[in-house]
## 1
Amino acid sequence: MVFLVQAFSAQLIGILEGEPLYVIGCSFVTLPCLMFLLYFHRPKLLEVRLVVPYDGGMNVHPIPEGGSIQTTMSSKMFRFLVRDDSVIDTPPSLRIWLVFILSLCIAFAIAIIEILGGDYGRVFSLVMALPMTLILFSIPVYAWWASSSSWIGLPTRLRDAEIWLIAGMAAGIPAIMVNSWLTPILVPSSWPLDFITYTISAPIGEEIFKFFAIICFVSSIKGPKSGFQIGFTVGLGFAIAENFQYLLLSYAGGGFTGLFITSLIRGIGSIPGHAVWTSFSGAALGWWLSEPQNKAKVIFLIHRLTSKSMDIIESIGIDVDMDGDKSGYDGPEYTMLQAVKDVENPIGVPNWSISKDKIDVISTSLISSPIRIWLDMPDSLDGRGNLILKNPGESTFISESKMKIIPPKSLFWGLLIAISGHSFWNGSGLIISYFGYEFGLSEGQVIITSLLWILILVIMVLLVSSLLMRGINSLSE
């Protein structure tokens, strides 16, 4: 998907600039990548076998792969094909972070060999560049993904998580078009192009396009918690596409030393930054969609756009619905009243309930092990709202910290916070470098000051992400 984003963006620029050979050349990258992506993400099926008691049945049932199923009583076997809706099961996040730290140590060792090894060191560096880049650009994203999944605690289907990541990476295509093609055309040559791109064009364009990617999954957003999860994952997907490009450029400019420093900074700071900024707008969309009338409006609009799109496509001679004619959308008209009913009674959503017993055991197909929920919480609270455990010998109490960040309920403020945070991250470093030279600092002093400021930014992003996760976990949905 990363190669597809980069090549397809270059292909679009080639079309806009009238370079047919450039477009044809990029097709040798985009078409194989697209075919592989469709093949890899195709719906996977599972065979389910159900054996039930049945008078007059059989005691032995042969199975296609060889062998048989034997029962002690007469039975009948039914076989079904169902879509694989397995829940994503990432390894413990600590394990993935240890892999990333080990990868950084290897990159640092290769950088030392590159510096001290002369020609042999440079050859070894060149050989290791691509595999180490592939590791360092993806492992930290996977680590943050695992961390957020464990923090949020929402069971997520693997296919859903994959498509959220893919949508985030696809949002990089229009962002590249705006930053690399449109902005240089619109900005006068006398203006500071880099500063405008980093502080205005990139934050506004990237956050808006990521927000559009989140909107594609309104049917999966039930409230701020699920909106936050989708926004966080879309942001990680966008970070994947961007991270690969930055790591390649850092290696081209500074060898493995540049690759090591960029991987460390982006893995700890920039990647969660993209996720956190987009999660603000995703959670705000979740707040907005938690109002039934708003979600009904969106569902109604999607159905109308779908039917109109089918009319346009079939008008040019393509039978989209494969009904034997090209008359456009032939189904019943979808009304606002139907949208309201669909929101109130969603299909395929289980009705959850909690019994009044002290202990309730809930087992679902999404959770492999039962969850025990203690419901005598009011009897275990002190006057300040702290939870007191029943057995003082094990622990005295668990208190909920008041330090947390609750995402805004306004779409405007959610998107504005995302854009502002992105702009501050990009622009503050440029401003510090500019004023460093203006105040007469040497190049080495400017580099050290910039690195210190990046360290401060990383700490700020980690703090915000921690408080935001705590605030999201305090929400009911």
## 2
Amino acid sequence: MKIKKRSIEIAIIVVNLGLAAMTSAEETLPKPQGEFQGTIGRSTLDSKPDWPKAVSAPQGAPNVILVLLDDVGFGAASVFGGEARTPNLEKLAKAGARYNRFHTTAICSPTRAALLTGRNQHQVGFGNLQDIPAGYPGYNTIWKKETTCVAEVLRQNGYSTAAFGKWHNTPLWEITPAGPFERWPTGLGFEYFYGFFGGAANQWEPTLYRNTTRIDAPAKPAQGYHLTTDLVNDAIRWTHQHQAAQPGRPYFLYFATGAVHTPHHVPKEWIERNKGRFDQGWDKLRDEIFARQKQLGVIPSDAELTPRPDGLPAWDSLNADQKRLYAHQMEIYSAFLEHTDHEVGRLLDTLRNSPGGENTLVLYVVGDNGGSAEGGLDGHSVHERSIRAGASEDVASQLQHIDDLGGPDYFNHFAAAWGWATTTPFQWMKQVASHFGGTRNPLIVVWPGHIEASDQIRKQFSHVNDIAPTIYEAARVSPPTVVNGVAQVPLEGKSLVPTFADPNAPEQHHVQYFEIFGNRAIYKDGWVAAAKRNYEPWHLFRQLERVLAPNFDQDRWELYHVDKDYSEARDLAKTNPEKLQELKDEFEKEAKRNGLYPLVPTPLGAPSTVGNNRTFTYAGDVGSLPGSVVPELTGRSHRIEADIVVSATGTSGVIFAEGGRFSGFSLYAKNGTLIYENNAFGQSHQKIVAKKALSDGSVKIAYEFKSEVPPRLGPRLFAVAGPGTGNLFIDGELVGQAKFERFASMRFNETFDIGRDRASPVSTEYESPFAFNGEIKEVRLTLLD
């Protein structure tokens, strides 16, 4: 035993020395251009040319494919015991290794910030979501230049780089047609980007960008369009172009799907394949997943199944209507995950079978956090933000369109208890960074010739910030100390490369904090101390006062010895107060070092191009303006005027619109008649139809809304609307009026458009883009309150 112990100690010393050598070397980017090696005479006859050498990657550097799925709990996919059938993930795992103690941050933007930098999320500026920035270094969502993206490092070391899919890490006020673009993907090291900004994307009718330009989706849902398929097609196309132009140059491809985040959009044939597979309910499903996990060896044989949280109902307590709706919601989610597995599998098969594909490192992170409870207890068919604003989403209303859920007309999400079931065997779910249900996700790594195809489990504690150091070591790239003149914050993550060849390699990641919405924990050498805020994740918007309450000292801390208690089933806080205090002190040290304070800062006062302006003027050829550059109009008194030219009777098309299928407004003409439409939650469409037709020639039209209550705006994310009256004018004459009771802002998904309605249509009376066939000279917007 002593000899074995000494061998392990020596191995640890060797690995640490290797990592120290890798990280301590003075590496500055960009690399200096070599000196001119030719000769210069008075003419070319006595001169010898010499060309500057292009930066090239280290000999034998692999292609790197980094895949990140969205909102997939630890126990959702079959590769880790889940019910959703993921044969491509299973095939990949058999060719490499599964990591069963890998962790994310518990929510979208922070996980991505840590993933792409090798630092902790607060060090990058993403202690919270892109959507709710706060004016403190750890929360301002301004990607720090001291924490350079892995793509920039690889690019300056001879790699081609591209990102596809979800990008949730650019400040809201910088997502504009005019930039600035330095914190867009193409400003952070990715030479090519195709995807979307924000937390959620309509999978049927997304708001897409190519590099820094807003573009339309290449097809419509009726033509078979789906975002995941489109992203895979574009990624394959990019690699083919790369191979044709630079066949010997390695690439870094970051592929982050919008799947399986809400909305759960998936082709109907995939849903049909899951019919009846979840009738047993979430309690029995959790038992089944737990048994399969032990059989697969992805959890220890002595792991315990944690109980259902208070507030989530037992399946047996539900009535027949609830069971019918909830079971179908999970059928849709499972179908969405299976469809994603198929499409990402198609991508990986294509790339790994392409020239040079045998030297490809695949890092597949199955989820950026635990399963989501954000659908509430009943799930929903529109969106949780609309629910907060008053949409009706009870069981009866959802059952009326149950067969259409998953399709283009709905923004559906499953009931919260399914999110909990997909985190088997752990407590809690997404948002709850204090417990593994929020932070533990599967990781699968494949690299032929470097990882034995034995499907062995890696049990070392690891974190999403370990991915960048792993890529650097695999590519034989030294993490830089200075990038573009800026000194770099040292990496927090530890390379996983030693575990590739040795499943039992010593653990390198000894300390790691977690924090989201004040839910917080600290891991240290096999122990975890955890403190959860007093709110229910499925009632986040209803219980914001609990989340924001400054009484952090009253939060109860729990203690788990996770080296022996895999699922955090046995709280030892009362029996080992000394250990608990030790870990609480460690958390305090890490919190101060990483910039966690103040906890849960209020998201007010963020930079804005709107500012205190009251009037806004737009030329007629302006379009696709995101919410960051247009004032929030939801339920707020305002007037919009447009100078148009009507060339003939029968004029049709959108003059201006904001939002889409799931909420927004549109002023459009149809066969010469002017119509204003207010779409509330996709559930009601109120219209003002002009009493007189548009005449030929130059016309001044206007829409004016007067609210009956003062605006309660606050952060954009939580805009609340009141009732009011809308008036429609043609050349100053009142031609229509209506009382509007309900509004909902969905601007985070779609844009303010002039002359067309891009992405999904606000109105069911037309199909996007429904371009205006007259001329729009100018549009003016004025706030009246």
## 3
Amino acid sequence: MSLQPAETAAEPDQPAFAALVDSLPDPVMVVSAHDAEDASDRRIVYANLAARDLLRIQGAGGPLVSAIRHPEVLEAVDESLFGALDGEAAYETGGAQDRFWRVLTRPLAPAADGASLALMVVRDETDSRRNERMRADFLANASHELRTPLASLTGYIETLRGHARDDAAARERFLGVMAGQAERMARLIDDLLSLSRIELNEHIAPEGRVDVALVTRDVADALAPLAAEHGVRLDMRLSDPGRAAVIGDRDQILQVAQNLIDNALKFSPAGQAVAIEVAGDVSAEAATAPVRLGAARLSLLTPDPVGGERFVMLRVSDRGPGIAREHLPRLSERFYRVEGQKSGERLGTGLGLAIVKHIINRHRGGLVIESLEGEGSTFTAYLPRL
């Protein structure tokens, strides 16, 4: 049987393997050629459904170069066609999102008319490449974040061993700084471990019943002394007990509330208030509605649409310096901190919003940021209502 493209599963002139190969998720093609010197002679004699969709192949007999133009791929095909060798090549395509592809080629037995044949398999390695980059970036950032307090500690230790050994005032001051750096390292390690555990279980649906209003009340009570120390009020508007229940992991919901409220406190000037609201029965439209006129808004996470689904909303607003529009898309990246807000007595780890985003994603919820420079920011998390 001659090799023909599988245009539909019902065509009678398909090869016997067409239905089987069409079910494969990876693009698969068979290429033929007679003349090694003529690049236009490479023809696609069979392409499965995935290959036709990816490369927009219309039918059999078309030139390979019209579907793939990357020289490395064409060279790998030639190695199999005319060298009887296995070939491999990788290439990248642009667009809204870059995608990474790996092409494997294998020689086949010659066709009845003497043409050389080769098998091509195209694999999408975008996710693995992105994960690889994320791991590399994560390790680089984590090592950088740990190196700074370690260098500070080492410097102060050397000073205390040297000329400051007998200086009581300097020794007291240096020990205080060292304690702060040690606490920063401890917070960073705690957040790294927390993020790792959350990512590990992100695909597992949570169980249990959690009242978001009660959890938020507990967090606010715990942070009240810190708020008072900084001269910041906590203005709370919480739904009645039992009306803001969700299916979830209580410890993780508590982390969301704590990170959002603590972040608002961190950037709130003395004399201002942090507004905390929990609403127990809202639509997705209400949860994502604008809060501040003229503010920049971005949805960092959007749940899969379900008709008529109701949500429990946690909204935290501050009157701090606000965040410029260009920073919003990167706020949930690991270790990302807005320029100009990287110093201060309560330096964060840069992992808080990444933790919040992963927790909300595990709970099939949404996360929206709204900010106006000079007037403050609002973070809204909403979870499917029980």
